[in-house]
Amino acid sequence: VFAACKKILITVYFVTLLIPLEAQTTYKIRYLGSAAGLSNNSVRCVFQDSRGFMWFGTYDGLDRYDGYEFKVLRNRINDSTSLPHNYISAINEDDAGDLWIGMGQGVVKYNVFTDIVTPVYFAPYQTKRKERMSMYINSIEKDDAGNMILGTSGSGMIIKFKGADLGVQIPLAGREGNVNNNVSIQALHIDHKKNLWVFIAGLGLYRYDYNTKQLKP
């Protein structure tokens, strides 16, 4: 019995020695600001792509960080191959590896290998009219099916279904007409059960119904 108690006391003693060591774990934190090459110290969004690069959307450009240095992309006047706007508000990646860049004036696809920027188009609700997305983008998500979901200011939620040529404006359940022209999607979130949750300014929390293709409160 004495030997067993002695073993227990020794074990407890070593555990108590280890606890302070765990509590003292430190992490190296490095500040990355404009002095390190960041285009602007006001960062609106952060995204890590499938290749491991970190992307920072700032008030003055899109920044790629590879662990050593920054590469900055900005609008170039009269250059249609550059970003249309420097205020970056949302970033995500599609199944093809292209980045979707949401800005103060719409959204574009950016090919990281060719540096080619491609505009994104949509059809307003109940029309087949092709329009370039030029509204403010608050949020971009990708679901498990590879569909790209965009939350806009003033034009509601737009989904570019995988394989489709145009994005489509999503209606609110029980409402028709121009409702999508005056609602702002502030946030999008896909949970672990694959539910798509949508927060609409002034209206509250909605869920996207994939069967009816409507937003339901």
How would you describe this protein?
The chain has 217 residues and is mainly β. Helices cover 10% and strands 38% of the residues. The protein has one helix and 18 strands. It has one helix spanning 2-23; strands at residues 43-48, 54-58, 61-65, 70-73, 88-93, 99-103, 106-110, 117-119, 121-123, 131-132, 137-142, 148-152, 157-160, 167-170, 185-190, 196-200, 204-209, 214-216. The strands form four sheets. It has a six-stranded mixed sheet, with no helix packed on it. The protein has a four-stranded antiparallel sheet with strand order 1-2-3-4, with no helix packed on it. Strand 13 and strand 14 (167-170) form a beta hairpin. The radius of gyration is 24 Å and the shape is globular. It starts with a helix and ends with a strand.
Largest beta sheet: strand ordering = 10-9-14-13-12-11
Main sheet characteristics: 6 strands, mixed
Q: What is the molecular shape?
A: globular
Percent of residues in β-strands? 35-45%
- Low-confidence residue ranges: none
Count the helices. How many?
Answer: 1
| Helical fraction | 10-25%
Order of helices and strands: HEEEEEEEEEEEEEEEEEE
How large, in whole angstroms, is the Cα Rg? Answer: 24 Å
Task: Calculate the terminal CA-CA distance, rounded to whole Å.
Answer: 66 Å
Total beta strand runs: 18
